[in-house]
Amino acid sequence: MSQASYSVQGDIAVVTMNNPPVNGLGLELRRGIVDGLSAALADPAVRAIVLTGAGKAFSGGADIREFNTPKTFAEPNLMTVISLIENASKPVVAAVHSVAMGGGLELALGCHFRVASPGAQIALPEVKLGLLPGAGGTQRLPRVVPFEMAMNMIVTGEPVLSEKFKGTRLFDAIIEGDLIAGAVAFARAAVDGNRGLPRVRDLKVEYPHAEAFTQFAIQTATAVAPRYPAPRKCAEAVGAAATMPFDQGLAFERRCFGELVDTPESRALRHIFFGERAASKIPDVPEDTPLRPIRSAAVIGAGTMGGGIAMNFANAGIPVRLLEVKQEPLERGMATIRRNYENTARKGRLKPEDVEKRMGLITPTLSYQDIADADIVVEAVFEDMPVKEAVFRQLDAVMKPGAILASNTSTLDVDQIAAFTKRPQDVIGTHFFSPANVMRLLEVVRGAKTAKDVLATTLALAKKIRKLGVVSGVCDGFIGNRMIEQYSRQAAYMLEEGATPQQVDRAIERFGFAMGPFRMADLAGNDVGWYIRKRRYLERPDMLYPKIPDKVCELGRFGQKTGAGYYRYETGKRDAIPDPVIEKLIADHRAELGITPRRISDDEIVHRLIFALVNEGARILEEGIALRASDIDMIYLTGYGFPAHVGGPMLYADVCGLYNVVNRMKGFAALGHGDTAFWTPAPLLARLAAEGKGFNG
Ligand code: NAD
Q: How far is C-alpha 403 from the geometric centre of its chain's CA atoms?
């Protein structure tokens, strides 16, 4: 069946795009539009054509399901469709409602007239994927709206409401009420009034200082987004609309588009776009799995994490009970939550009445009876198995049947926790990141017995509380922390070999990380890792650890909270100041090991850190702990400050070429210091490298 329907209302044809959910301009729809247009042009009774969209949009642009397939550019491609419309012998009126974005707006710009409902979102958002509008958008939009407005829209990609275009040539009329009836009447009046076949391409950009403004826009884009080429190119292409004849400008736009498609930055942004959507798809869990309703929640433990988790529920309008063993920590937890909300309100990001509304959704309690009817309970008590055991046995005893029992543990075995209950199918890990009310990542840990609907419900809940849920299997540290441990180990080995904390941090921060490993450790608390390592020394005596981190902790230097860690901190400030105490500690440690320090390049620092993530990531993939390479990347982007313009460690490895990655690892092993066996490439990595493939295909 055609994806565009055709009907005739008297002397006006109506072509309606119909490709749910947003009338993405895939090949079938493009064919449908051309067929409708041809039928209208061939019918002598038809004097004009209205082009509109069924359902929730005029058109949201390219059909993302066709991305990276030959269908994207198959004829009739979007440029061809626009050209056919623009050169049609009868006027075509775009009737825009709800959403006209990207290719959808470019299509409308190819029409002779455009009318719109108020409230429609109008945008050319391609820059957000590291691209620019490639079907004439950069050349046509500045011809119908003020130059500065077009520049802004294309460089930022932000939507503007249709009524804001009143008085511009983008819309000939804003139609209140029935859009199609209004558009048909408009089309009829246009023919009756002999308004001809005006084409946007024939208009001139009316702006006296276009070149100067373009230069200003290029400089601003470079300053605001120095790591991304797309905003700059967008500005250049919009500038061309003012300085070049239309066809030349169009060719320039094409050229810029081609350049951008091949940039690693665009590849990274597209990888993120698809990676985020892929994360909620679980191969053995059908998309239509019935979900368990989540109307109420409970959180056990009102500490650092529990408070933030409770806020997430309240922010989403879900009433939540917060349970503690004692009154004092409960009151402290509630006070912290209130302070957080009040700070947000003070910054103007929350209305004062909403502080009360959200506080009103969080009920403190000391009694398990009070939480028995919650649909989900998230445990966030001390990271200690006997404490978890006591809590889960309680939960098993009191919670209503079907309640989801979640644990926020960051290192403990979720299957063992599940086994404390008689309903392991209802148990799941929900690993929030600190601060839990801010960080977007939610690692969803699927236990061996976790029911499919529990997994599906938890992923849906993640969306509801505005998190990105990514599934991990059960292993020590799950995906994110298991990998970061290798990264931290390499960072500490490099201290032994000759680097300083500030050099390591600076190198990786220049690469784009929000924070280097030592500043990060000082922020999170060095004692957290120390506690885990002490457990490991007993459980896994085979694992090698560099000892500088332990020595830092032995001095009581736990980081910012104690005023000193790898750096020192002045009271009330967060600036990391290099500290001679640490320099001496490192020098003494090297002397003890008989190491002569060597100069370590920034390039070595960056690649040892990132490839440590990659090698462990490859093992995690091979073991099935992560479902896909992009899941690992999404975890690093949303939970660990990995730079978005690189797209994640696994994509970075692909961009470097896995053959090169493997070679580099051999070089690191040959340095002969530390855990050299770690640099044996994971079997999956070795295999893909030998086959000339990447993690992402
Ligand atoms: P925390 O020490 O700040 O808070 C724990 C709270 O649990 C305390 O308020 C304590 O009074 C309460 N508690 C202890 N036993 C209890 C019980 N039996 N019943 C009810 N309440 C009890 O610890 P946290 O940092 O919030 O960590 C909580 C959990 O979250 C741990 O499993 C931890 O591994 C995990 N986690 C922590 C972080 C982090 O960055 N802090 C990040 C991810 C996950």
A: 30
Nearest alpha-carbon partner for 86 in 49, 55, 130: 49
Helices within 555-648 (DSSP H only) = 580-593, 602-622, 629-639
Give the residue among 551, 535, 681, 692 at the shortest CA–CA distance from 618: 681
Query: Within 10 Å of residue 515's Cβ, how many Cβ atoms?
Result: 17
CA torsion sign, 240 to 241 to 244 to 250?
positive
Strand order in the sheet with 121-123: 99-101, 121-123, 160-161
Question: What pLDDT band is residue 68 in, cutting at 50, 70 and 90?
Answer: confident
* Helix axis angle, 683-690 to 602-622, nearest 10°: 100
* Burial of residue 422 (number of CB atoms within 10 Å: 0-12, 13-18, 19+): exposed
**Fold of the domain built from segment(s) 4-261:** 2-enoyl-CoA Hydratase; Chain A, domain 1 (3.90.226)
Name the residue at shortest CA distance from atom 25 of ligand 1: 304
Active site residue 106: yes
For range 46-67, the mean pLDDT = 94
The maximal CA–CA distance of the chain, rounded, in angstroms, is 95
Name the E strands within 236-310.
Answer: 297-300
Q: What does the pLDDT average to over 425-448?
A: 97
**CA-angle at 244, arms to 239 and 248, nearest 5°:** 115
Compute, in angstroms, the gap from residue 648 CA to the centroid of ligand 1. Answer: 29
Tokens 């208009």, residue? Answer: 203
Question: 540 by DSSP, 3-state: which?
Answer: coil
Which of 28, 66, 75, 106 is catalytic? The answer is: 106
C-alpha 109/C-alpha 122 separation (Å) is 12
Q: What is the CATH number of domain 480-690?
A: 1.10.1040.50
Gyration radius of the chain over CA positions:
29
Burial class (CB in 10 A: 0-12, 13-18, 19+), 529: buried
3-state class (DSSP) for residue 143: helix
Give me the pLDDT at residue 461, please. 98
Domain parsing of the chain, residue ranges: 4-261, 297-472, 480-690
Is there an atom of ligand 1 within 6 Å of 304 CB? yes
Question: 126, 236, 265, 324: which one is catalytic?
Answer: 126
Is 148 considered catalytic here?
no
Helix or strand (DSSP H, E) at 456? helix 452-464
> Which of the following CATH numbers is that of domain 297-472: 1.10.10.10, 3.90.226.10, 1.10.530.10, 3.40.50.720?
3.40.50.720
Q: What's the rounded Cα separation, in Å, for the pair 206 and 145?
A: 9
Q: What integer pLDDT is reported at residue 196 of this predicted model? A: 97
In Å, how far from its chain's centre is CA 218? 26
Mean pLDDT of 392-412: 97
Q: Is 408 in the pocket of ligand 1 (CB under 6 A)?
A: yes
Distance between Cα 300 and ligand 1 center (Å):
8
Q: What is the pLDDT of residue 253?
A: 98
Could you tell which of 300, 305, 330, 371 is best to mutate to test the pocket of ligand 1, judged by most ligand atoms within 8 Å of the CB? 305
Residue 218 CA: distances (Å) to CA of 137, 225, 463, 472:
18, 10, 36, 42
Torsion angle in degrees (nearest 10) through CA of 166, 171, 177, 178: 180
Distance 305 CA to ligand 1 centre (A): 6
User: Are the beta carbons of 302 and 328 closer than 8 angstroms?
Assistant: no
| Residue 412, H or E segment | none
- Distance separating alpha carbons of residues 399 and 377, to the nearest angstrom: 9
pLDDT tens, 265-276?
999 999 999 999
Question: pLDDT for 635-681, tens place per residue?
Answer: 999 999 999 999 999 999 999 999 999 999 999 999 999 999 999 99
